[in-house]
Model the fold of this input.
Amino acid sequence: MEQQAEWTKLTVRASRDDLDTVTAVMGMLDNGLMIEDYSDFPFETGMYGDLVDESIKNADLSRIAVSIFVAREKNLSEYIAFLRERFSFAGVAWEYECEGLREEDWAESWKQYYHPIPLGRVTIVPAWQNYRAKGGEIVVRMDPGMAFGAGTHETTRLAVLLLEETLAGGEKVLDVGTGSGILAIVSEKLGASLCRGYDIDPVAVRVAKENAEENGAKNVSFGASDLLASVERPKGGYDLAVANIVADVLLRMAPDLPAFLRPGARLICSGIIEPRLPELRAGMIAAGFKEEKVISENDWYALRFVLAER
Done:
């Protein structure tokens, strides 16, 4: 019997013009990056002679490959969904491949890593598992499919914890980069009266709608939007916005976000790595926000801001 690989090599291929973005996003998953970029290789000098492999000599110099190694006990589906969401928002055309695990095995085996996840009052439960809620427990059933947001990633967990702490009931909530729809659905379960989630990826929008139906979330709707371009503003503005996306995207939409919020509204940002914290804080302050709280898990950070009164 063939032994299953202990590690899976996850490789992303893209244009060399997107190298910085690809390495930044891949670096959010793992610090041990393997980068293949032969554009500066000294082919003309011939100094390496026959030592140069034919695959390098024939490489497309306009393309790069960035790889990480994912341990077998990790949820590979969550990794790939994370990349899909981040690259969609960054506008990067990419493709991926996995070595060490057959795709037909991975298509179903990833589910074994997804178990009920208690997050304060909320418990995220796989849609395919039987689970009986305990007294006072808020259960959210999720099938992430091909969208990011199963509750297993630190960025999602941090956002859920801040939502629990912030929502009192009756709020209008905007979820930008909704992925699987988990944060919008959690918001509704916590008492929000209106929740709208938007994502640039139509696959994510479809998955989010299916998850909302699974949870009987009547006050939640989803639509496709490139950041805020197609977002509907309710009368009076949103009371809270949540965005679990990369710092570059948050900074890009920060100046436009206040127009969708009421004065004094809250903003929850997740998906931030420590080196980007100063830049994110400066960008949010410039847009009219004041920092209220920051929480972290491992190397990930989530922040809550309040919009200053106009």
Q: What stands out?
A: The chain has a mean pLDDT of 85.
